[in-house]
Amino acid sequence: MTEFWLISAPGEKTCQQTWDKLMVATTRTNNLSTNNKFNIPDLKVGTLDVLVGLSDELAKLDSFVESVVKKVAQYMADVLEDSRDKVQENLLANGVDLITYITRFQWDMAKYPIKQSLKNISEIISKQVTQIDNDLKARASAYNNLKGNLQNLERKNAGSLLTRSLADIVKKEDFVLDSEYLITLLVVVPKTNYADWQKTYETLAEMVVPRSTNLLFEDQDSGLFSVTLFRKAIDDFRHKAREQKFIVRDFQYNEEEMKADKEEMTRLSTDKKKQFVRPRLCVFNAGRFHLCRYGLPVNFQAMLLQPNKKNMKKLREVLYDLYKHLDSSAAAIIDSAVDIPGLNLSQQEYYPYVYYKIDCNLLDFK
């Protein structure tokens, strides 16, 4: 698991001083976390009322984006099948792994122009993620159809000799072809009945060609034998063979059909592999724009912390000591079940600084 804490706090005299204080408190003496500045441009914030009104919408959008990203990861795992251990290395954002993307995050000015309002930017993100979600549904449906068709063909090429495809077993030279009078049949014989077959097959019907049987293939239970006889004896031979527990397969050698089946198998397998395309991962950050907690004008430093797993509790205490002066009511709020109108924060995630947890572990497979 790779967990990050995205926090922001108002600048001291400068934002750099806020950063320096955090570094001293968390890294230079006690190695509580690995920190990076998180670069957020000067957004068109608007009024406090606008920010509060937008907060619920951003929370819904955040949940939606997270669900789509996890679906993308699940799709990747489904497509990789037996190579699921390689999923993480193929989950890329803008061509790099997620940790690199987050720690070196740069706002995409072209896609999300900062001259637009936060509401417009959130709508742009919503439309893009909705399109990704729709594309993913279409791709997943196509993949499942391909997978189903391929499995049906694979089933035909496996299993009992009574039901499986014989196209990959028999050869042209196993048959008498283009004869007006003679035909070659394929018969499934239980291994325990091999001796009976050899003794009786010539007498199961009139006009069976002597010494015409050959063992072409066998599995764990049965063998596939060829036998040649006159066409007009087929029905009688089939009936008598069944009485002896010899099953005549309904098979006619057709080179074109067999070639088409093999080509279809290859095509489906190739198309299935083509479904493995690194999907676009949309990572939606910027602390859910909880800038309103410090009022306006905006003067804050956003910081990305990767906690040392063994020292998470200590890190939380240090952060509280650093920023408790920002909100004297924070401790009381944490201990109670008070909701802050417009912010939609649970009691567990309210701190005297902006806090947003980022979990890069998108995969949780059974």
Descriptive account of the structure:
With 366 residues, this protein is α+β, with helices and mostly antiparallel strands. The chain contains ten helices and ten strands. The protein has a four-stranded antiparallel beta sheet. The longest helix has 39 residues. It is elongated and about 105 Å long. About 10% of the residues have low confidence. This is V-type proton ATPase subunit C.
Give the total of beta strands: 10
Indicate the overall shape.
elongated
- Spatial strand order of the main sheet: 2-9-1-10
- State the distance separating the first and last CA atoms: 16 Å
Number of helices: 10
Helix fraction, binned, reads: 40-55%
Q: What characterizes the major β-sheet?
A: 4 strands, antiparallel
Tell me the structural class: alpha+beta
Oligomer: single chain
Radius of gyration: 35 Å
